[in-house]
């Protein structure tokens, strides 16, 4: 059965949009998904379904809305798509600290004007690669004061986006491989 990674945007960050991972797993299993696993508390789900990726996304969003009363955007990748992200790893030679290396997963391709704006706000030392439906960003000084990170984490990209650090990306691929 096909395996997917569902990335919920903006949950369990501070006091808003709280969802306990055991409750999320239970709700997704009750909705018919199989082999549901979560990784850390930030809305990373690996699951199996015979449905296509877009149907999985819609169903996960509906389950979260109906079970928790939250309208949370979800970005879905197949196991093969996530493996391709890890394989590409365009900043692997410079991104030496996985927690400062972020991948933003997009629900569509980023517009050229937005991509240029991201490049313009990058601080010296920060690097950025837009590749398909992902944006790879290296923040050597961290994300706390990064204008690039603020823009990537915001809602002004024209597409739904949710970011994960490199450690989480590789762990999710490992989970999806089971």
Kindly describe this structure:
- The N and C termini lie close together (12 Å).
- The protein has 2 domains: 78 residues, Alpha-Beta Plaits (2-Layer Sandwich); 95 residues, Alpha-Beta Plaits, CATH 3.30.70.
- With 178 residues, it is α+β, with helices and mostly antiparallel strands.
- The protein has a 4-stranded antiparallel β-sheet, with helices on both faces. A 4-stranded antiparallel β-sheet has the order 6-7-5-8.
> What is the CATH architecture annotation of the largest domain?
2-Layer Sandwich
Order of helices and strands: EHEEHEHEHEEHEH
Q: How many DSSP helices?
A: 6
Strand content: 15-25%
Instruction: Report the principal-axis shape.
Output: globular
- What structural class should be given to the helix and strand makeup? alpha+beta
Major sheet description = 4 strands, antiparallel
N→C terminal distance:
12 Å
Query: What's the number of domains?
Result: 2
Strand order of the largest sheet: 2-3-1-4
Helical residue percent?
Answer: 25-40%
Fill in the CATH topology of the largest domain: Alpha-Beta Plaits
Our Rg estimate from Cα atoms comes to 16 Å
Which blocks of ≥5 consecutive residues have pLDDT under 50? none
Query: Class of the largest domain in CATH?
Result: Alpha Beta
Mean pLDDT: 95
Number of strands: 8
């Amino acid at each position: 059965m096909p395996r997917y990674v569902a990335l919920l945007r903006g949950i369990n960050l501070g006091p808003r949009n709280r969802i306990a991972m055991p409750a999320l797993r239970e709700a997704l299993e009750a909705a018919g998904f199989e082999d549901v696993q979560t990784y850390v508390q930030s809305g990373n789900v690996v699951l199996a379904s015979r449905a296509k990726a877009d149907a999985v996304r819609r169903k996960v969003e509906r389950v979260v809305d109906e079970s928790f009363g939250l309208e949370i955007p979800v970005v879905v990748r197949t196991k093969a798509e996530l493996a391709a992200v890890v394989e590409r790893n365009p900043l692997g030679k410079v991104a030496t600290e996985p927690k400062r290396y972020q991948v933003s997963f997009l629900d569509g391709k980023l517009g050229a004007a937005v991509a240029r704006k991201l490049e313009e706000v990058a601080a010296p030392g920060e690097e950025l690669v837009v590749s398909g439906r992902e944006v790879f960003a290296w923040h050597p000084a961290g994300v706390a004061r990064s204008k690039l990170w603020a823009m990537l984490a915001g809602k002004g990209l024209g597409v739904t986006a949710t970011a994960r650090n490199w450690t989480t990306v590789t762990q999710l691929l490992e989970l999806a491989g089971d």
